[in-house]
Structure formats: C-alpha cells, structure tokens
Fold this sequence. Notes:
By secondary structure, the protein is of the alpha+beta class. It is built from 13 helices and four strands. Strands 1-4-3-2 form a four-stranded antiparallel sheet. The longest helix has 19 residues, at 211-229.
Amino acid sequence: xxxxxxxxxxxxxxxxxxxxxxxxxxxxxxxxxxxxxxxxxxxxxxxxxxxxxxxxxxxxxxxxxxxxxxxxxxxxxxxxxxxxxxxxxxxxxxxxxxxxxxxxxxxxxxxxxxxxxxxxxxxxxxxxxxxxxxxxxxxxxxxxxxxxxxxxxxxxxxxxxxxxxxxxxxxxxxxxxxxxxxxxxxxxxxxxxxxxxxxxxxxxxxxxxxxxxxxxxxxxxxxxxxxxxxxxxxxxxxxxxxxxxxxxxxxxxxxxxxxxxxxxxxxxxxxxxxxxxxxxxxxxxxxx
Length: 288
C-alpha cells in the first residue's frame, strides 16, 4: 500500500494554486516545446507523442470526458486551464468564480457585506494599474510571491512623465462608469454590474448577488475560452498526461530512501517517485 506522506501533502495543499501556475508557467512552456530539463525529465519521457493519441482522444470524447465541466474539475485539467487562462490574461475569470462559490457559503451578514464589496472592487470595478492577476479576495497579497513584472508595474508611477493634460484625462477616465462601457477584470459590463452595485449600496446582499454575472463568465469560459483551449498546446499536454494516468504504477517507479522501522503489520519506509520526485511512505505488509 502506498500513501503520500502527510508532510508532503500538507506542504502541497498549502500552496496557492494560482501562484503555482505562475511559477511553473515557464516550465510548462518548456514541456510543450519539448525543451524541458531537470527533475521531471523521466516523467516527460513517459508521455506519449500527441500524434499517437488520436484513438485515445476519440475514446475520451465518446465517454464525455472532454467537456469544460469534466476537465475544469479534474486536477491536471484545472491546472492546465488555469495556466492557459494566465497566458491569455484571463485568469481572473476563474478566480472570480471560485471566490463567488466561497461567498455563497458565508452565513454572517457582516462577512457577506465585506466580501461582496471586495469581490466587486476586485473583479467588477474599474481595472487599475496595480491589480494583481489571479489574486483572490480571500488572500493577502503580502503573503504571496508576486512575479517581478507585476511588482515592477505596481511600482511604476504611470504619470511620472505625463503632461498635465494627460494627467487630467486619466483622472477623468477613472470616473467613467462601467455600467455602460469600460474595462474590468472579468469582461462583464452593463446592467448586471449596475444591479450588483445598487444591491451592495442598499445592503440587499444575499448568496444570489453575483449569479447573473457568474453565469456570463461561465458562458465565456464554456463557449469561447474552452474551445480555444482545445486548440492549444495545453490541451495536447492534457491528453498526454491523461494517457499516462492509465498506466499502472509499480514498485519499479520508486527508489527507497530510508527505512523508518517495523510497524504492526510490516516494514515502513520512505520512498521517492522517479517520475515526480514526490515522497511517499511505503508499508510492506507481511502476509503471515
């Protein structure tokens, strides 16, 4: 029996998913281009070529396993879709939907009001120059490893070299309402945004506050972004990973690092996977 070590699982689970995507985007691109080197080389060698997976892809489609819902809610698929969204500057759409789901679980009226305002400001309000892509309202930016290019953008004074006329024009543009036109981080404008604004202002807040906007964002992911994802290298990598999942895991895929001693049922040892470099605890059960 193979169990992932509790220490390793805790460490992995504590990592913010979007931060992980940002940190590994370059690595994923190298995988897609076939130029990756380092610890996961053996894993990459196990991935079949996309050209060999035509029948496998056909089988998945017949089993209805290549839909937005199935891919987005599957670990590898979710990771690759988020990575694709990041590359398309649309990661906030996925984060918005996740935050709305958490908002719906809030029961305290004061918490609902506070979080609703934060979600509106973060995703529905006017886009700002210091916005951090992929930041949830349930996170604290100071606790995250913000990519250098975002930090640089935040620290740049937009008006340092602007004329007085340009400054006045920018100040005026910030006052333009998003209710009719404008830009925000999820690409939804008009009456749905106005309704949310009015409900928050009048404190008529319930779990359905963001439903209409959430549906529009979901439709955008489903009807526009997901079809484009299926034409991208990320989808091809997804199929290669899914095919690898069908292969059985054997003892040959692990290297024993050290013995932890004998338990009630047999030997306990720490092992490392050749393919992923993750640590696992092995229980060698005595069949006596």
